[in-house]
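Narrative of accomplishments. A recurring question from our advisory board has been how the design workflow behaves on a single, concrete structure rather than in aggregate. To address it, we present the structure tokens for one chain from the evaluation set, followed by the sequence designed for it. No filtering or post-editing was applied between the two.
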């Protein structure tokens, strides 16, 4: 029986999710399974997408809809509700249930790579859907953090305030959850003071395309340990697959 899965977002051509699931379905002999990219101009178009595709079983959600999708769901699991963001939807009997696999995937990748949990402190750039998942993971791990936003009301620092502080020098983990530097606009990078980074810093970019963003390159030039979002993407995708098959 044909089964459909896919990714919804405003622009999705940068995503590796289709390749990931196409290869998985091929490897596992799931010839009637399809994974497609769906660009939605507005999140309300999700209802029409579900109506047009009765074979739809599951969706991933990406920028900028991880928070705005919540009112369209019939159910949301406790974990995703607590985080306030959904990156996985299971479709069953025309009902949509929301989950969050970003947070656990980020937590797993962080604990494998960044071992300094005592006295660890982080700066998180951005306050959107993936930032909320990262914040939950940091709380779970007991890592204190400060948020940076373009909007003064949403965070501890604006980028201007961050530049005029020692917050980067004083932390040992910097995480980019903004889309700055993501393909196709690969010239972009978060406006922070890169000369405050040193070899004591761990710098994590959730972006995986390109593999080495300007943000990571600048951090590496300062001697920091760097990590991109590819491993997180794979782990969250496997966890989404488990949810769709549960
Ligand atoms: N590796 C993975 O598995 C994985 C998982 C999730 C997300 N991601 C990546 O993470 C990024 C964000 O995704 P998301 O779903 O969290 O998006 P989102 O919900 O739209 O949030 C992005 C946040 O970034 C900040 N931002 C947006 N445009 C900006 C700009 N021009 N300058 C500075 N800040 C800006 C905003 O925060 P403020 O308004 O507070 O400034 C915004 O809330 C994307 O590149 C996505 O591909 C990767």
């Amino acid at each position: 029986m044909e089964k459909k899965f896919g990714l919804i977002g405003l622009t999705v051509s940068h995503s590796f999710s289709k390749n990931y699931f196409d290869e998985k379905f091929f490897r596992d002999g799931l010839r009637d399974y399809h994974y497609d990219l769906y660009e939605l101009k507005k999140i309300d178009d999700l209802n029409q997408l579900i109506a047009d595709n009765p074979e739809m079983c599951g969706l991933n959600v990406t920028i900028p809809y991880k928070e705005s999708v919540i009112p369209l769901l019939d159910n949301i699991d406790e974990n995703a509700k607590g985080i306030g963001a959904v990156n996985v939807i299971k479709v069953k009997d025309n009902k949509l249930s929301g989950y969050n696999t970003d947070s656990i995937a980020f937590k797993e990748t962080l604990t494998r790579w960044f071992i300094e949990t005592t006295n660890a402190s982080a700066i998180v750039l951005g306050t959107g859907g993936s930032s909320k998942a990262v914040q939950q993971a940091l709380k779970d791990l007991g890592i204190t953090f400060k948020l940076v936003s373009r909007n003064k009301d949403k965070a501890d620092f604006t980028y201007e305030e961050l530049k005029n502080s020692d917050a980067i020098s004083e932390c040992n983990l910097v995480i980019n959850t903004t889309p700055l530097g993501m393909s196709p606009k690969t010239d972009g990078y978060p406006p922070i003071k890169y000369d405050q980074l040193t070899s004591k810093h761990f710098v994590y970019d959730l972006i995986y395309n390109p593999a080495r963003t300007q943000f990571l390159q600048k951090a590496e030039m300062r001697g920091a340990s760097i990590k991109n979002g590819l491993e997180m993407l794979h782990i969250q995708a496997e966890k989404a697959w488990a949810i769709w098959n549960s």
